[in-house]
């Protein structure tokens, strides 16, 4: 834990070999928080969770003092689909994701809202609203939140405009079960100019007026390989992309987000023998305390 004022920082970690191993890896990298998948993100099916899975995961969180564990839902889920079979399959899958997250004691499940593909944006948004109402009704006894993630707007993906997220949130109106996860790469790729000070402040003002800052329960902190407004989702290591370091400094030092957990989703690997998560976390913490 840093001894200066900094939001809780962490990364997405692999559950290969056991859920607890993601927490072990997070601790080794110096994370305060962790994000995982609760199942294979490219498959509909899921191996049943066991009491041993839960107990070892919970113990690892406690032993390593890792907070705010969340998951990211399957990339197969598309709540905006106009195809009834895929639509219902997506609803069922999200219900399962929430049940698994609740079982493991997670705080939220990050969800890409969906892509309208064969319909229209407005029809897609209405299908998302209807689907989420059904999902939340089916899981009314749970506490875990659905965290709608803003998208880069690639293809027909919805949620790239903050107005679209506002419409979804307003249409569902279950504040204790719904929140937002803001991805910095997606925000920039969607055309929000956070790389400049004025653009950063204007974007935060839009977040406040359209969504409400209290609704933002998490950030994905990723630089962008592509230019402003490209609507292409390509993550880059902190300070090495088109966003640059300044926006992350402003975000980390923004008192409005001092308690909001922030998770890296940058490429894994090593550089000159050092883990890239360690490098990115060190970079973020240096920015948090820089002038």
Helix and strand succession? EHEHEHEHEHEHHEEEHEEEH
CATH superfamily: Divalent-metal-dependent TIM barrel enzymes
The portion of residues assigned to helices is 40-55%
Roughly what fraction of the amino acids lie in strands?
15-25%
Characterize the structure shown:
The chain is of the alpha/beta class and 291 residues long. The chain has a single domain (9-288), classed as TIM Barrel, CATH 3.20.20.150. Helices cover 40% and strands 16% of the residues. The protein has nine helices and twelve strands. It has helices at residues 19-29, 51-64, 84-104, 121-138, 162-172, 184-189, 197-210, 245-253, 276-288, and strands spanning 9-12, 33-36, 67-72, 108-111, 145-149, 178-183, 216-221, 223-224, 235-236, 262-264, 270-271, 274-275. It has an eight-stranded parallel barrel with strand order 1-2-3-4-5-6-7-10, surrounded by four helices. It has a two-stranded antiparallel ribbon with strand order 8-9. The chain has a two-stranded antiparallel ribbon with strand order 11-12.
Task: Give the arrangement of secondary structure elements.
Elements: E1 9-12, H1 19-29, E2 33-36, H2 51-64, E3 67-72, H3 84-104, E4 108-111, H4 121-138, E5 145-149, H5 162-172, E6 178-183, H6 184-189, H7 197-210, E7 216-221, E8 223-224, E9 235-236, H8 245-253, E10 262-264, E11 270-271, E12 274-275, H9 276-288
Parallel strand pairs: 1-2, 1-10, 2-3, 3-4, 4-5, 5-6, 6-7, 7-10
Antiparallel strand pairs: 8-9, 11-12
Helix pairs in contact: 1-2, 3-4, 4-5, 8-9
């Amino acid at each position: 834990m840093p001894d200066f004022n900094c939001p809780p920082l962490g990364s997405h970690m692999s559950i290969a070999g056991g859920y607890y191993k993601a927490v072990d890896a997070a601790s080794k990298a110096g994370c305060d928080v962790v994000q995982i998948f609760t199942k294979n993100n490219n498959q509909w099916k899921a191996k049943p969770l066991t009491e041993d899975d839960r107990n070892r995961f919970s113990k690892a969180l406690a032993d390593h003092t890792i907070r705010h564990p969340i998951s990211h839902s399957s990339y197969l889920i598309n709540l905006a689909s106009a195809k009834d079979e895929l639509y219902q399959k997506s609803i069922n899958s999200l219900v399962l994701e929430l049940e698994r997250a609740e079982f493991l004691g997670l705080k939220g499940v990050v969800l890409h809202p969906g892509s309208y593909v064969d319909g229209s944006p407005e029809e897609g948004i209405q299908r998302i609203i209807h689907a989420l109402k059904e999902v939340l009704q089916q899981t009314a006894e749970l506490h875990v939140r659905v965290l709608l993630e803003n998208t880069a707007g690639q293809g027909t993906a919805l949620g790239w405009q903050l107005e679209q997220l506002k419409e979804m949130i307003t249409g569902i109106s279950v504040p204790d079960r719904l929140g937002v996860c803001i991805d910095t790469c997606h925000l920039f790729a969607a055309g929000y100019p956070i790389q400049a000070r004025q653009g950063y402040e204007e974007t935060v003002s839009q977040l406040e007026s359209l969504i409400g800052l209290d609704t933002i329960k998490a950030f994905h902190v990723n630089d962008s390989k592509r230019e402003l407004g490209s609507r292409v989702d390509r993550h880059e290591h902190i300070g090495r992309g088109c966003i640059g370091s300044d926006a992350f400094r402003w975000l980390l030092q923004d008192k409005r987000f001092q308690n909001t957990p922030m998770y890296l989703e940058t490429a894994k690997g090593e550089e000159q023998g050092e883990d890239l998560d360690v490098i990115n976390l060190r970079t973020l913490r240096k920015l948090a305390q820089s002038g």
